[in-house]
Give the backbone structure.
Amino acid sequence: MTGLDASPTVQAIAALAAAALYGATYLSFVRLLRYPRNWHPASLPASLATAVLAALTVAAVALSREGLDGPALAASAGFIAVAFSVIAAPAIAFRPASRPVEFLARHGEHAGLWLLGPALLAGLAVPNIRLQAVLATAMAIELAWFLRQRRAGRRRRLYPLNVHDLSILETQAKGDLAAFRRRHGIRELVLSEDAVGWRGCGKTTPPCPFNLYVNRLGLNTAPCCREHMKELSHHLAARLGEMRVVHWLEGGSLLGAVRQRGALLDWEDDVDISVLLDRDMTWERLASGLAEWGAREGYFVDLFEKNGFVSVSFDPPGRWPFRWERNRLLGEIRTDIAIYRQAISHGEAVLERRSHKGAMPLTDSGGYGVPRGIVLPTSTIPFLGGDIACPNRAETYLRVLYGDFSKIEYTYVGAGPAKARARFDAVGVLPVR
Ligand SMILES: [Zn+2]
């Protein structure tokens, strides 16, 4: 052992450096989770940056002048792998995921604390102060996350469930609401002698985990979430109008507006709006206009230039450096903005996007396109209590996306729950004019 290594000051500095590296790795990792949350493949530079930080953390723990500390290397690498799997579960579960991932996602508020026992054991078994500093930092982060989520959860307020929400809930619960609530951990559901209520999400509470409730259990979108989707979509459309961005209601939201006469689909999990970029309205102008508005009005704006996509969420942007910790939440109220550009495909003027949508046909250049005349000039349609821009020929547009759109299809809803709710939904459907 050298004299330098024996110095407590040097050891303390090395431990602090390892702890700081873990903190940086954690922040980089939660930022990376924006990709799976939005169903995009993770960007290579962002993934590499996180991997390099993780490797540096492990190296700072395991390497010293005395050489390589094998047990500390194994313990730190193993701990980071397990902890990050737990942290990533809610973002991965934005798509249908395996049972273990969904289980971890459902308990994402406190699952990190389950690592306390293993962390204590590792810290005691491997006498390496740098490892102990990393473990302590990780557990402090998990504890802070849990406490903040629990405090935020107390701000939920009670919403009544309407007759249709309640019928669907009772159908999926096969009549036994208490057992259903217990089995699926539906903490929002309030059962009292004379009423059934919903402890709803808000601007500063954790969101309702719609992936679980809407997609997995086949419930209606919660009343709180519907209310926030309404607010968000109209505020955003007003902002796009103010910026003179050509935009229109898209996908399932347009389907709701047409088929449900201005309402959301009952199992809606987001609002889709598309925008047209051109020489005047560039990506940069759109991005800066929305980012400025989001910061001012308290909406989280996430920009994905490569994917031609912006997501605007109801929750307010958090403070740096914890801005990206929101990616640990299961669910969010969101409006997805897809980018279109003018193009010529097979000799026809089209509006083209990069990601696929329904059955929208492929274009010459490998994107997806819809004939320009179906969209432009845009029209308006009643939607959630106000008028919103829509394609010029909304029903033709929907036929391009979904074929016979009067037929109900439960996209993203599990097969069993979809079958169970079909009977009720059929009654509520109005004929398409
Ligand atoms: Zn909600």
About this structure: The two ends are 84 Å apart (CA to CA).
